[in-house]
Amino acid sequence: MSVVTRKSEVKKYLQCCISAYQEKGLSACVLELSNQILNRKIKFPLLEFCAHQLSERIKVNEQVALCDGIETLKTEGGNVIIGIILQNRLENHFQQSIDKATEYTSKADIWYVCDIIGERVYGFALLHYPDRTIPEIRKLSYHSKNWVLRSLGAGVHYAVRKGLDKQNVGIVFLILLSLANTKDKEIRQGIGWAAKTTTRFHPDIIEQYHADIQNQEKVANWFRRKVAIGLERHTYYAKRNSR
């Protein structure tokens, strides 16, 4: 199957979905999204373009129902569209977007659901609305579903990489540390990813919490390994940029 890389081609497929929505309603739109877009190989930036267009064309009070319909299709690309639609709703529907992201990730049966939605919703929210998002992340760090915890890691990774301010990075890192003793593979991958990124961009925070990180009763070796990798990457990029 060829990969769709041209916006002009995607626009044609998307217009079929918009027309179906205007003529027959939301269910017809979901069906066309499945046929025209989600069953093709389309690069993520173009799927994000589709999501932004849908956010503009679908009635506000029907957007969550659209996400629900897309979620039932269980496609990788559908998570990109869901993530961006919820992201676009954060400003005016913050809590609902966080709650829906949690609902969708809790239903995950594969890693990419968590990573795609986690970056686009939790990560974007943390970067742009840290005061509102950090309490939500702290609360969700106690969630019973490992997929939700993995998605939090993806979100923290995104926000740190995109420039979350140092003070809030330090606060969020303590939440990561609270999960640093888990044995669950999915949580380890998400939280470890975030820890590695934090270390690369803010090694001084790692130094600040060095004693906590070295506490072998509360922090597992896998977390320390991720921190070590992050420090190696920080050193590598620092040397490269100094040339």
TrEMBL record:
Gene3D superfamilies: 1.25.10.90. Signal peptide: none annotated. This is DNA alkylation repair protein. The lineage of its organism: Bacteria, Pseudomonadati, Bacteroidota, Flavobacteriia, Flavobacteriales.
